[in-house]
Amino acid sequence: MTEVFRLKQGKAPLLVSFPHAGEALPETLKPRLTGEALALDDTDFVLPELYDFTEELGASTIEPFYSRYVIDLNRPPDDTSLYPGQNATGIMPVLDFSGHAIYRAGSEPEADERAARIAFYWRPYHAALNAELERLCAAHGAVLLWDAHSIRNSLPYLFAGTLLDLNIGTASGASAGAHIEAAVEQAARRSGAYSVITNGRFKGGYITRQYGRPSLGIHAVQLEMSKTIYLGHSQRPPIDANRASALRVTLRAMLSAALGALALGPK
User: Fold this and answer.
1) CA 210 to CA 180: how far, in whole Å?
2) Concatenated DSSP letters of 186-244
3) Taking the mean position of all CA atoms in its chain, how far away is CA 130?
4) Which of 74, 69, 59 is nearest to 171 (CA)?
5) How many Å apart are CA 89 and CA 181, to the nearest integer?
């Protein structure tokens, strides 16, 4: 596989990014990973399938082919921690979300490999993401970047207790206008089917924080979801058709509300 991501261009002022949905691994990397790591449990499984309605909204979408274990596209290139003082994983993680080793002993990547992966996987994805935001913003005057994620609902290494269903992040209000944040949260709560929090444990990763510039017309929202609400209790594929069908209604309402608020502007 020579391509590292897929970009589909739409006409609406909406770009949906799936930075952790990739599952491919280079053949040369597989023997270096532990058996547990090869299960790829930290993947945001089948999110593009869950968000298949975004094409009807006219959205652009961008998704990588490769796993976050190859490179984490939602981390800064200098690997500065997004959540200082809390356990987290880096741009080229060596521990998984349970704190277990990803690599077999003695097989961990060194600095030159890290630099090569950033150049080959990370930079092209971000160049394309940034270019698409600029294209849509130039066409519409303002654009919504929706960074889509999912995660297991219980990960003691990363957070205490059980994660809520829908975790909205706007970098504590810095990455999106208050009117957009409010519209998204209100739409999420209207369904009454899911627990909701804004700027809780997950406030938005590198993509949300780097590209969200409300003063320039770019509003970025991250949605981190519990995998149970679309995959069921296994939290692994295949997708649970009934759960996914119900969730799509809420996700569509959230995105539509955000686009409506984007069009109207702040009150």
Assistant:
1) 18
2) HHHHHT-SS-EEESSS----HHHHHH-BGGGTEEEEEEEEETHHHH-TT-SSSP-HHHH
3) 15
4) 74
5) 27
Helix (H, G, I), strand (E, B) or coil at 150: strand
Q: CATH classification of 5-264, choosing from 3.30.450.20, 3.40.50.2300, 3.20.20.70, 3.40.630.40?
A: 3.40.630.40
pTM score: 0.96
Q: What is the pLDDT along the chain (267 residues), one digit of tens a residue?
A: 569 999 999 999 999 999 999 999 999 999 999 999 999 999 999 999 999 999 999 999 999 999 999 999 999 999 887 887 787 789 999 999 999 999 999 999 999 999 999 999 999 999 999 999 999 999 999 999 999 999 999 998 899 899 999 999 999 999 999 999 999 999 999 989 999 999 998 999 999 999 999 999 999 999 999 999 999 999 999 999 999 999 999 999 999 999 999 999 887
Distance in angstroms (rounded) separating the CA atoms of residues 148 and 244: 15
